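Example A, followed by Example B.
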Amino acid sequence: MMFNRKDLPKNRQAELNREDYKRWKKEALSNFGYFPIFQPLKESFILKGISGNALRLYLYLGLMADNSTGETWVGIEAMAKYFGKSKRTISEWLKELEKEGLIERMQLQKNGVAHTFLVPYGYKHSEDENSLQKRNDLSI
């Protein structure tokens, strides 16, 4: 007999949600590609200032990138097709990501495909005693 989770006490619902998340995370990390987002994205106020569309593109690039190098070769045309947007719009989002210091794009060969590199962020926060990384204060 199936039960409806909503009929359970709230504490039990919360416990089941935590268990589901832990199981999902463990299985997903073992079986799927992934792209980590670290706390300094919030602390450095990048998250607050970046447009939603540029953030979506950043997530897409992260999921498409080689996890060991942060490099992807996805072309603007493929990105435009995926998002159903024009190449010009994708170029604007890429410029925003470059301006925020989240990516760097370059051509390694004349007339070659552009490489997009995810740029590490957050190092300055690891030295800051008031950093959320140190305080574990998530209210900010």
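Example B, a separate protein, is given below in the same form.
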Amino acid sequence: MIQLIFEIPDVDSLKEKRRIIRSVKDKLQRRFHMSAAEVDLQNSLSFAQIGGALVSNSKTFGETVMYKAFEMIEREVPVRIQDMSIYSEEF
């Protein structure tokens, strides 16, 4: 599971914020086959919190995918990452 809190600079409306968040969620779903959702800070104009989850039979593979997803967001999305955490479990 990955959780990101980021600042979205220069956003003037919730509609514009939601467009950026939808773009991030779509990229995570298409490129990394992850489930993704905005999990908190929905009413904040300049901040967002997104969570993503991936099921894999390998902890190493799952964490690698999460780090690649984080790097993609850093490179391609016009946001400032405030916090990021990755959590893995094995059964």
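On Example B: The chain has one domain: 2-86.
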